[in-house]
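forwarding from the other thread:

> can someone predict this with 8-OXO-2'-deoxyguanosine-5'-triphosphate?

sure thing
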Amino acid sequence: MTERTVVVGAALLDAGRLLAARRSAPPELAGRWELPGGKVEPGETPEAALVRELREELGVETEVGDRIPGEWPLRVPYVLQVWTVRLLPGSPDPKPLQDHDELRWLSRDELWDVPWLDQDIPAVREVATRLLAS
Ligand SMILES: Nc1nc2c([nH]c(=O)n2[C@H]2C[C@H](O)[C@@H](COP(=O)(O)OP(=O)(O)OP(=O)(O)O)O2)c(=O)[nH]1
């Protein structure tokens, strides 16, 4: 049986815009943009992992909504799953506290202005199709 580890990514939406985060590490990913999130730990639900990762990485309090259908391979053994997420009322604004050095809220028109990680592009395309008004 093949081991696989789910990496959860947030489609964090606010006022019709998507939050993109620029990775600061590791060197092979630094400078490229991704959906913030991280690995689901053993015994943890994907939703709990997202809330934890977003609190650690961005300092925000969030509520997880629906999963975007699909699953995208990262380097073995990781696969990316994406969930819609919104900021809870009163949450601080996101800040690049850990793993990232810049954040941007992207409107649909701006979505491809940042160099996403190659492996995130199909997931971002799916988010755009489903969630961002054209
Ligand atoms: N979070 C996130 N990771 C991604 C995306 N695309 C992508 O290839 N990855 C890779 C980068 C990492 O190798 C892995 C997730 O690692 P991570 O560093 O974000 O997760 P983590 O906080 O749980 O990691 P760790 O430092 O505890 O090991 O998946 C993405 O959109 N979001």
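Strands lie at 5-14, 17-23, 33-34, 37-39, 62-73, 78-87, 100-106. thats all i got for now
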